[in-house]
Structure formats: structure tokens, C-alpha cells
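chain below, 243 aa
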Amino acid sequence: MQFILPDWNAPQGVKACTTTRIDGVSDGVYKGLNLGDHVRDDPEHVKQNRQTLIHELDLSRSPQWLSQVHGIELVEAQDDGVCREADGCWSQESGQACIVMTADCLPVLFADGDGKRVAAVHAGWRGLLDGILEQAVAGFEKPENLHAWLGPAIGPDAFEVGEEVRDQFVVFQVQADLAFSPVKDSPGKYLADIYQLARQRLDSVGVKSISGGEYCTYTDAERFYSYRRDGVTGRMASLIWIE
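prediction:
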């Protein structure tokens, strides 16, 4: 099983990774390690993939799976096997993994400086616009001591959006204009840099240590699922937990 590991300065006791589609038992359009149970893949394949992930990472508790709705709510991760509706979760319990699933949207992982609280967030453009990252940061005592990692998402050369999306970001934060570039010969269309938009939002609430942002799920079909590229497809998982 192949993982993407954050290159960041989080405390040693914090463990984090993003899965790839490599390995796993799903087939067809879901070929690989699909961990999404809401995309019409064979439920038994998803179950086996999740069990393999838990075994591979030697997780001591049931991880918190979420039903994501592109909102801004975060919940406390529990090991009771209940899938909760939210777009992020947090934990202060050792061994309790927080998970978000993506296939172009941006996963953001957080760890405080002393390694006592972690969080995982699913930031599609709607959640990012509405303040999911600010909501996550508000759960930590000292934003300036936070470490944030931007996991694999659609890259700035592939994420095309309409003028209405750009305008909403710019109205909220003028500097967001720097994250959009016009698409040649396509009036009203822009390429959006979701990594830059996330960095701007995190910087605005005092987060100084921000890492990641170097992958493109859309162009790297060997390693990543991409909804924009394939339509019907699987999901990767981004996980963080305190050892």
C-alpha cells in the first residue's frame, strides 16, 4: 500500500498520511484502494479496503468515517463505528484517527504544537468559501502554534471554475484574486488555485506553519482518483491521529 506522507514540522507523536489508489480490491472505474462507501462501488470491496487500511496503519481504534456534505461542521471523532455527517473531525484521544475523503477537493490536516489535538478537514471550494478552515482553527487554543498540511487536491492548472465562484471569494477577501487566472479564449472562466486560497484563509487567522500543496489529483491518474477527470470514481482518505 502506497501513502503520501506530510513533509511538515508536526510533533513526533502525530501520525498522518493520505492514501493513493494503488493496491486495494476495487475494480472497474473504482480500480484500486477505493475507500468511499457512497460512490456505488461494491460494498464488500470498500469494506475490505477499509479493513486493509486499518491493518496496514495498525490503528488501535475504529477511525471516524464521515458523511461529507460540503459544509463547515466539525465533530469529535469517536470509535463507536458511527458514520457522522460533517466535513471535518478532531480528536485529543491517543489512537483515534480522524479521516476525510477526497477526489479533487482539498484535505487539510491540523496538529497543535504540543501534539495534544489533531483535526482533519474536507475543503471543497464551497466549504473553503464558507469558512471550514477558520472553523477548524477556532477549535485550537493557539493558531500561531498550529501546523497545517494541504494534502493532494486538484492542481491550479486543472481546476476550472466560473466567474461567479471567483467573485464570491474576492468579495470575501480581496487578495483571493491572486489565486485565479483567466482561461484563454473562454470568457468568464478561470483556473483556481485551491492551495493558494487555503493558504490565504489560514494566514488570515494566524496559522504560520503551512505545508503541502504540491500534488494534482486530476493529472496524476496512476496515484489519485479524480471526480473532475473521471466522473464516477473512488475516494482517497487523509488521516491524522495521535500515536
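The first helix runs from residue 43 to 57. The helical segments are 43-57, 125-130, 132-137, 163-172, 194-204, 227-230.
thats it, cya
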